[in-house]
Design goal:
The structure is a single chain. This protein is α+β, with helices and mostly antiparallel strands. The protein folds into four domains: about 5-40; about 100-110 and about 330-415, conserved putative lor/sdh protein from methanococcus maripaludis s2 fold, CATH 2.40.420.20; about 115-125 and about 245-325, Efflux pump adaptor protein, beta barrel domain (Elongation Factor Tu (Ef-tu), domain 3, Beta Barrel), CATH 2.40.30.170; about 135-240, OB fold (Dihydrolipoamide Acetyltransferase, E2P) (Beta Barrel). Helices cover about 20% and strands about 35% of the residues. Strands 4, 6, 21, 22, 23, 24 and 25 form a seven-stranded antiparallel beta sheet that branches. A six-stranded antiparallel beta barrel has the order 7-16-19-18-17-20. Helix 4 (about 165-180) runs antiparallel to helix 5 (about 180-195).
């Protein structure tokens, strides 16, 4: 048996395997030396954020291992491992768009209008005339007047027979006929002190005889509110016979909600419309704000004075009052973007990279679909105007904390 044959087969196999390993290692080493990517200091390729699971924001309890549809038929969105509470919550832009989400920027502008309130026409209580008897007498005649009648200035109400004036008037006529101007002036002054008007004394001079019947008339025009004189009655000196309220101007008492009372000031211009006069606007101003709040409706009363040409405006009419607030620049966001929780007011701030963070804000006036932001948000920052409630739910589940007002920019009223 030859020497080759004396070598056992297992030893041959082991030697062959060893040679193959040495050759492979040498070839791999040469390949790494010749390859430019073999540098151990070269950075590894960055991997994207890890997706933990897929879910539907409307069904936070459901989690899925991959994309698809939820039990409600909505597209699932990914939940990434790097979504932390301090950096906001990540929402895929395509998913947000499929949910109807809109991103808008907070911009400066002015609110389109003030506030609208309802009102009721009332008499102008400053334009009231009281008709009284200057002396005691008997009602000899009335002129068929009644409360609610419209009368002009100087309209007669009743004729009074004043017997005690007869002697004084006869004495005055006797002195006047005597031709002594000094005594005549004294006698005339006595008639004035007894309550006679200059018109009555002039009539005595013209007729040269006593005038014991005097006509009680209205000093101003308007509506008779009260009338307490009747034929055959006796009246006393100083007794009120009638009350006449002028209609040249009227009041409109507008009910202002207590929460909006700070927007109304005395002297503010207003425009008033009435259902009785469609298409016509009456201009006026707030004369005063009554100092008492109505407990049942929690409203304040703003008194508006309007000119009433032709007596067209009748007390008791309903009115719609448009109060224009003072226009001033303000930071505005859509009202639908504001989330009111009861304890605070939030908006969802859109960050870079598809991330969103709740931000606490302080709001002011609201009109025309816009809300004024007083603090907590900067000009140009973008917020979610639709679908923000879904993002807010996701942020709550992820433990995302809202940015408080103190950590935000300065109040918007202080910005240039």
């Amino acid at each position: 048996m030859s020497a080759f044959n004396r070598i056992s087969t297992p030893r041959v196999v082991v030697a062959a395997v060893a040679l193959a390993l040495v050759a492979g290692a040498g070839g791999y080493g040469l390949a790494r030396l010749g390859s430019p990517s073999a540098d151990p200091a070269a950075p590894a390729k960055e991997a994207g954020p890890k997706i933990l699971y897929w879910h539907d924001p409307m069904l936070p309890a459901e989690r899925y291992p991959g994309p698809g549809k939820s039990s409600m038929g909505m597209d699932l969105i990914p939940k990434y491992a790097d979504e932390s509470g301090e950096a906001g919550v990540r929402i895929d832009p395509a998913s947000l768009q499929s949910l109807g989400g809109r991103i808008v920027a907070a911009t400066r502008g002015t609110l389109p209008s003030g506030l609208t309130a309802t009102g009721v026409v009332d008499f102008n209580q400053r334009d009231v005339a009281i008709v009284q008897a200057r002396t005691a007498g008997f009602v000899q005649r009335v002129y068929n007047r009644a409360p609610g009648d419209l009368v002009g200035a100087g309209a007669p109400l009743a004729d009074l027979l004043v017997t005690e004036w007869g002697g004084a008037q006869a004495e005055y006529l006797a002195v006047r006929r005597a031709g002594d101007p000094g005594l005549a002036r004294v006698a005339r002054q006595r008639l004035v002190l007894l309550g006679m008007s200059d018109e009555l004394i002039d009539r005595i001079d013209r007729t040269d005889r006593p005038q014991t019947v005097v006509t009680i008339s209205t000093p101003t025009g308007g509506v008779i509110r009260t009338l307490s004189v009747r034929a055959g009655m006796t009246v006393m000196a100083g007794q009120t016979l009638a009350e006449v309220n002028g209609l040249g101007t009227v009041w409109v008492n507008a009910a202002i909600p207590e929460a909006l009372a700070g927007q109304v000031r005395a002297g503010s211009p207003v425009s008033v419309t009435f259902a009785a006069f469609p298409g016509e606007t009456f201009a006026g101003h707030v004369s005063t704000i009554l100092p008492e709040t109505q407990g049942e409706t929690r409203t304040l009363t703003a008194r508006i004075e309007l000119s009433n040409r032709g007596d067209r405006l009748k007390p008791g009419m309903f009115a719609t009052v448009q109060l224009g607030a003072t226009a001033r620049p303000a930071l505005l966001v859509p009202s639908e973007a504001v989330i009111r929780t009861g304890r605070r007011t939030l908006v969802m701030l859109a960050l870079d990279g598809g991330r969103y963070q709740p931000v606490e804000i302080r709001t002011g006036r609201e009109a025309g679909g816009k809300t004024e932001v007083l603090a907590g948000l900067a000009d140009g920052e973008k917020v979610v105007a639709s679908g923000q409630f879904l993002i807010d739910s996701e942020a709550s589940l992820s433990g995302v904390t809202a940015r408080p007002i103190e950590d935000g920019d300065m109040p918007t009223g202080d910005r240039p």
